[in-house]
Amino acid sequence: MIESLLAGGVTGLGLFLLVRALFPPRPGLAARLLRLDAATNGADAARPRMLTAEEELSAFRRRLGERLARFYASRGWEARSIKSDLALLGRSFEGFLATKVLLAAFGLLAFPFVAAWLVLTGWGVSLSVPLWSALIFSAVFFFLPDVQVRRDAAARRRDFRHAVGAFLDLVAMNLAGGRGVPEALMLSVSVGGGSDDAHWPMARIREALTNARIVGITPWQALGRLGDEINVDELRDLSAALGLVADDGAKVRSSLAARAATMRRRELAEIEGSAGERSQSMLVAQLLLCAGFVVFITFPAAMKMLGA
Questions:
Q1: Is residue 206 domain-resident?
Q2: For the segment 78-94, what is each residue's pLDDT rounded down to a tens digit?
Q3: In which domain, by residue range, is 171 found?
């Protein structure tokens, strides 16, 4: 049965590769636009972004990530959600894809280990159990980076929203001192002492505002672009509000103060909800502990009454 399945799978894979070789897929719209931009600008715009030096990826992993990124671009798969999470964490999309594939390949190594364990324990040499075990391990390892990135990005995005609330208060205070909107934005982000874990949100905002001068866009447009990049709605709303009322300092000041108060109330509600969930979890754990203790106490008497 297993040999027939393997033979059929190999035959089907060979036929699939033959059809793909005879009839190659047409490039998607995204790939065509990238080629058009490359021809217009005289540069290879379809080439994916190089990995940062801090990640210290190996040459093989870098090439694998670049090929996978080109494959995604040719198929028109944007993966906006995971890209925004990676941008917030300061990681590259190419390294993320390479990690997923390498972990999936590592999960396939469970096949010989499970087969050897079955042989040593005397359960017999059956290929079905090691094969399915390897496939399950490979699938789990393939999705592990997604779970980790989304969990870390959710925590970082929550910290970023907290920093945006403080940033709005600082901007409102600077506007109350008679400064203009661009000057108030730059002075508000100057309170961050560096790019460490305590000041990294302010450092990201300061970097976006500094790059706005080089690119030639307004500071609120730079905040909107940063909000789109890291998927923070508060920055997009702030960009839209500043773009509408940037010429009226009083309205800007009152609007920012109201937004900061709303964000603080939202954060307080989230903290209270999280505390309530943890209290319920502790209550359930205590009930389970009490139930186990009751079973431990009553088990000898129950067994004696049953005559065991």
A1: yes
A2: 888 888 888 888 888 88
A3: 155-248
